[in-house]
Amino acid sequence: MSKKIHLIRKSVHLITGSLIFTITYIEDRNILLALFIAGALFSFVTFNYKSFHTLHKTPDSSLGTLFYPAGVITAFLILYDQPLFYFRTVILILTISDIAAWSAGQIAGSNSTFRIGGDRKSPGGILAFFATGFLIMNFYLSAHTGFGLSWILLALIVSVILEVISFKGSDNLTIPAGLAFFFVMSETYPVNPSYLTGIILLMAAGCILLYKLNILNRTGSLSAFLLGIYFITVPGMIWLIPVLYFFLSSVFLTKLNTYISKKRKSSSIRNAWQVFSNIIWALLSSVLFLITLNDIFIFFFISFLAAVTADTWASELGQIMHKKSFSIADHKMHPAGFTGGISAGGTLAAFAGSSSLSAISYLLFFGEFQFSIIVLLSLSGFLACFADTFLGTFAEKQFMKWDFLSKGKQLSANDLVNILGSATGPLFFIILSGF
After folding, report:
1. What are the tens digits of pLDDT across the range 152-204?
2. Is residue 280 within 8 Å of residue 301, measured between CB atoms?
3. Alpha-carbon gap, residue 181 to 189, rounded angstroms
4. Helices H / strands E in the chain, number of each
5. Nearby residues of 138 by Cβ (< 8 Å), 6 or more positions away
6. Coil, strand or helix: which one is 333?
7. Disulfide check for 165: which of 97, 117, 287, 426 has CB 3.0–4.6 Å away?
8. What's the average model confidence in pLDDT over 122-127?
9. Phi, psi of 352 (to 5 degrees)
10. What's the CA gap between 317 and 304, in Å, rounded?
11. In 3D, which of 204, 284, 200, 262 has the Cα closest to residue 237?
């Protein structure tokens, strides 16, 4: 019964994709957009009606029929000002390659499967997706654009990544939206496909290694990989290097602290929430800079990273250098690592982390060493570290009472402390610099 329902869904998927591809040759863009919106409304309205359960409901609780119209509309809007052959390529990939992947997975049903995102995938399915995608891009898209083999391979790598990280049918949104964005970026900012392909594969290997070494769990490794792809493909390598400096130095110090203090390995494994809680503000700063081209967001970016670097260096090196720390809560000495504890070694480590990150980042962005601004950025990150300590001491226990915070897979109280603490970095920079 399960295979029958999936077969019906895939048949509708094929018919719908074929119709969309065909009408792009008949109607103009405004009518196409109206038709896509109407189709989306139909999917959302009928989703919970029993008469349409065969169309929408599957044993694995897939939301693919909701993601599909959202993906089509998103891709169309992203590519609205681009030649229609880009959108048609997206529809062909979404229609033919997706069905080929599912069919191959059914044929090779006895083969082992794997899971990176929320859905299980089969090697045969991924191979079928890649092969059909290559044929579509090589014989249809390249005839219109003239893009070479290396560009096609890069586009396919992006597509496969969006396929394997999907959950509950979200590939119907991630693939069209991600490919559309890739096509727009290729038209707007010409890139070296061979270089980016090598970097992406290197980052994938690095994130797998971090997972195998128990530094990141599965979701943490995936999050780090996606963040790396964003920084290298959108704002560029200059933005990625400070992030790597923070992350790699933090990993080294955490593993060193784990080894010396003989902590349980699981205590040093980071999940997706921990990865994002340290990077979220820096990520937002990079986006705002791309929109506004205002240098203030570069300074915010540096101060955010300086804050989380200072905090991590203080936490890890403080425990290595001292067995005791002074608590700002009860003004007594406690074992190193105690929440709200301050030590001389940790304080020095915080300033070293903040100042080194600030100096490297400023030199990368501006190509010079302007001592006064670097000092302001260093102090901003350093003071933000103390703000994080105060929040951890006086607010973290209160945060634990909030329903949406829990330790484990979800956002924890400590993650929220890190988010709020690092947010003070640019505030201190504004105060100190008089911006």
Report:
1. 888 888 788 777 776 677 778 888 888 888 888 777 666 677 777 777 778 77
2. no
3. 12
4. 19, 5
5. 149, 152
6. strand
7. 117
8. 78
9. -65, -45
10. 20
11. 200
**CA atoms of 43 and 24, how far apart (whole Å):** 20
For residue 265, the tally of other CB atoms under 10 A from its CB is: 11
> 8-20: string of b/e by CB count within 10 Å (b at 16+)?
ebbeebeebbeeb
Query: CB-hemisphere CA count at 13 Å for 241?
Result: 13
Q: Residue with structure tokens 């901003």?
A: 380
Q: Are 173 and 179 in contact (CB under 8 A)?
A: no
Q: For residue 40, what are its two tokens?
A: 């989306």
The residue written with tokens 């970026």 in the block is 185
d(CA 248, CA 278): 13
Do you know the residue count of the chain? Answer: 435
- Tokens 């591809």 sit at which residue? 21
Is residue 84 within 8 Å of 132, Cβ to Cβ? Answer: no
pTM of the model: 0.69
Task: Name the residue type at position 338.
Answer: F
**DSSP secondary structure string for all residues of 109-129:** TTS--EESSSSEE-HHHHHHH
Q: How confident is the model at residue 12 (pLDDT cuts 50, 70, 90)?
A: confident
Residue 422 and residue 384 in contact, taking contact as beta carbons nearer than 8 Å: yes
The pair of structure tokens assigned to 350 is 């915080």
Q: Can you name the residues that pair with 341 across neighbouring β-strands? A: 327
Structure tokens at 279: 């990077």
